[in-house]
């Protein structure tokens, strides 16, 4: 058996699920379908609570959505408003006047039922999820399965989404894990990115301004660029937000980030990834281990606010009768 389940709160049905062998250990909780920790040879490659004792309280308070599954909608919808099929919808405004990550009752607050499937070195946690119009005010009720699969041999965590809706609606799920491949969580500055990146510009209110990425085009030229190079690049957009908080179009569905020892290889069927570099910190854990730029996200999803930029052609629209399918995986490779 390569997994264990620990009950954290019997009444609330909250569990901690650990999948492990000698080389790696990955932990998940059904509270917000979070990834809690991922250790390769004892080195943690993500940000999360250092002890499981106060895990529930930690996630109730953490304002950065550490490790959480976000749905129905990752990112901001401007003014919490959109029009679909000629009808106007007003969502909760939980981030100033905007709707962020689906609202304050988003999936990250829910405790989900699950089954575990264990086949040799691959363990799957299959979550059964309902998103209700009566809770988040998006149209329609969504029935979704979210699978977190861990392949112990290949050090590969895969997320599989499948969903249908009772009405035409929006669905733009993602996971809000923060990576840091270093031994300590001091800073991700030394991490290298192995792609040219073109950031979508944001307005002052953090909403994606336009589909034109021409002005913030970071060309690697050589074979990599570090986060420090980007932070120091002088781009007005990077200075204004004290780091990266921008969507990027993926060239071929992959994205690699590495330090001297490890490489994180992301693969997805989504066209965009939002990179956020934890640009301000005003909440901390007991050990003050969360710092500005101490982690980065790779949120694979459609462009935030796509419904207001692309209207009826927005990729996040899920039509009644259609099935939403999406797969993203994160793999850790040792560098030679
Ligand atoms: C990101 C978002 C950031 C910030 C963060 C949560 O997805 O782009 O602006 O809100 O979530 O701390």
From TrEMBL:
Pfam families reported in the protein's UniProt record: Aldose_epim
Sections of the chain in a coiled coil: none
InterPro entries, per the entry: Aldose_1/G6P_1-epimerase, Gal_mutarotase_sf_dom, GH-type_carb-bd
Top-level division of the source organism's lineage: Bacteria
Protein name in UniProt: Aldose 1-epimerase
Organism in which the protein naturally occurs: Mammaliicoccus sciuri (Staphylococcus sciuri)
Lineage: Bacteria, Bacillati, Bacillota, Bacilli, Bacillales
């Amino acid at each position: 058996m390569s997994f264990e389940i620990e009950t954290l709160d019997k009444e609330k049905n909250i569990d901690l699920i650990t999948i492990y062998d000698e080389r790696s250990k990955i932990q998940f909780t059904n509270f917000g379908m979070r990834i809690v920790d991922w250790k390769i040879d004892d080195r943690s490659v993500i940000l999360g609570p250092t002890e499981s004792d106060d895990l529930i309280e930690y996630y109730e308070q953490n304002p950065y959505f550490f490790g959480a599954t976000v749905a129905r909608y990752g990112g901001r919808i401007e003014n919490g408003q959109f029009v679909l099929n000629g009808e106007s919808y007003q969502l909760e405004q939980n981030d100033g006047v905007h709707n962020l990550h689906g609202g304050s009752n988003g999936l990250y607050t829910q405790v989900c039922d699950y089954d575990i499937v264990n086949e040799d070195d691959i363990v799957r946690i299959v979550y059964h999820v309902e998103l209700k119009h009566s809770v988040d005010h998006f149209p329609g009720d969504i029935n979704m399965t979210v699978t977190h699969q861990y392949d112990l041999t290949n050090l590969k965590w895969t997320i599989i989404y499948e969903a249908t809706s009772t009405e035409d609606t929006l669905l733009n799920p993602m996971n809000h894990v923060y990576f840091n491949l270093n031994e300590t969580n001091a800073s991700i500055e030394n991490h290298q990115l192995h792609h040219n990146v073109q950031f979508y510009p944001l307005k002052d209110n953090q909403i994606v301004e336009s589909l034109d990425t021409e002005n913030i085009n970071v060309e690697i030229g050589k074979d990599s660029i570090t986060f420090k190079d980007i932070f120091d690049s002088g781009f007005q957009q990077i200075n204004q937000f004290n780091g990266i908080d921008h969507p990027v179009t993926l060239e071929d569905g992959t994205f690699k980030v590495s330090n001297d020892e490890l490489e994180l290889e992301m693969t997805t069927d989504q066209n965009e990834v939002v990179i956020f570099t934890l640009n301000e910190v005003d909440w901390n854990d007991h050990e003050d281990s969360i710092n500005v730029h101490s982690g980065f996200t790779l949120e694979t999803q459609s462009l935030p606010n796509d419904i207001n930029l692309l209207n009826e052609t927005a990729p996040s629209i899920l039509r009644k009768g259609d099935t939403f399918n999406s797969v993203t995986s994160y793999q850790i490779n040792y560098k030679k």
